[in-house]
Amino acid sequence: MFSGALISSRLKYTLSLTGESVGGGAGVRRCFIVILIRKCGMNPNNYQNVMPLLSRYSFADAPFQILLVFYFSTGPRTSSHSPILIHSSFFNYVSSEKVAFQAIGFSKCRDQGSVFVQVNGEMFPGTFDVLGDNCPTTYAPTCTWNAYRINAEIPLEKIPLSVLDTTREVRLFTPTSSATVSITAVNTAPRPEGLEACVAPLFWYNYWVRVIEFIELYRSQGVSHFYIYVASVSELVDKVLLRYQAEGLVTIVNWPDLPKSESSNPNLGVYRLGLDSCHMDCLLRSKKKFVAQVDFDDYIFVRGKTLLDYVTEHENAHTEIGSFSFVRETLLKQPVHGSLQDISSVSFEEFHKASVCDVCDYNKKVIVVPDKVDILMTHKVKVFRNNKSTEFKTFEIPMDVGAAYHARYALSAAQQKAKYQKVNLFSSRVIASLTEKFTEIAGELANTTAKLDITPTIDLLEKCTQNWMFTPSQCKAPHEYCWSELINVEEWKFANDRVGRQEQYVAL
């Protein structure tokens, strides 16, 4: 292994070739130096050994910057990595002493590698972290492009909050590339009380009635804002979402496909348009203390209280709680298909007197405390944040207290044979309020749209994606594999058309 003295001497020699002085004293031109070490006996990932040397030549008030890629072997550096495609970047609260920078995106499976994050002239070492359970994931092993993040912790003694809160761009460096990313959202203080909801990317989605019932039922449970990720939706769904966004209740997050070329299409290797990246993006975007991670067919419910009241009371009493986990039960809910010119025919009574099965599902849904979560997956927290005084954990909700009801009509053979019981869920008052809101919005749509029809696209989706688990080379990529079956079914609105793929993603 190379000694610190040898590294230092080589560093000085390299600097001398640039004409820069590395000595102290007045009038010395100062520069930032990042050393990215390759091989020759020193672990290229172990940059912590080099950081003390780095600090000897780094000054916060430098008038200019030099990036040195310092190799201990001859020849140009080559990389076996494909780029990481970055969708969004955040500053996020960690503790009273530090803030995290996180960039969310996609990459092929990669080793840890080296990455540095430059903020306001300061350099911080970062990591590449896979967001799923592994890479490739156990639930989609044929998918070659997986969810990743770049993560770097920033001590507030280095950069104060007043600077971070106004920083709009960050520079990223690897041994072979660099890129500038814009900051999407900043949450550098503990989040205030409240409950928000995240909805994973909608694709080929035309069930506009469910959009209304979902938002109104969760509003009755204390949810104040919804982050709804959109890849492709029908014209009617788009109109409903835009209406709620105009009210300030919804943030539409456009979720375009990855950039592709004639020779390469990474979207063929992205599972369901990148669920795990979406979950982390929403976690970091959120502004309230609690966030529900749900789909449009998930209805989390607790008896005797609103969701907001329940999670607030329990987290205040047990500060070690970092997430609430709800067992998912199956709720029989017939879809609304066909013509809806007679809007009075639509009933939401199935949410009042519900038929449910408590042994038909095995998954769970979660409400999390973003300030306590490091990595979030679809059905659970993968990693909680480290805390000096408290070990954060998941609180399992007893089924007699609450559950996540999964609205289904296409049942498996086992689900069809199971016993269903009648359960009182949402009150008559809530159902009446939902019906009133639906009538109002549907009436507005009828005045501007020739047809309020809903085509049963779920059946077409099931057909075109049913082989993904059994075809070794096929990933569940609904835009790619269902295009021909669905493109002419509705007037679709695509995130690709609103946010260009090339403009949205930054390659590093």
Automatic annotation (TrEMBL):
CC per GO annotation: membrane
Q: What's an example of a GO molecular-function annotation for this chain?
A: glycosyltransferase activity
Q: Which UniProt keywords apply?
A: Glycosyltransferase, Membrane, Transferase
Q: Which InterPro entries match?
A: Glyco_transf_92
Q: What is its EC number?
A: 2.4.1.-
- What general EC class does the enzyme of this chain belong to? transferase
The protein's topology relative to the membrane is: Single-pass membrane protein
Subcellular localization, as worded in the UniProt entry: Membrane
Q: Which family does it belong to?
A: Belongs to the glycosyltransferase 92 family.
- Put simply, this protein is called Glycosyltransferase family 92 protein
Q: Which organism is it from?
A: Steinernema glaseri
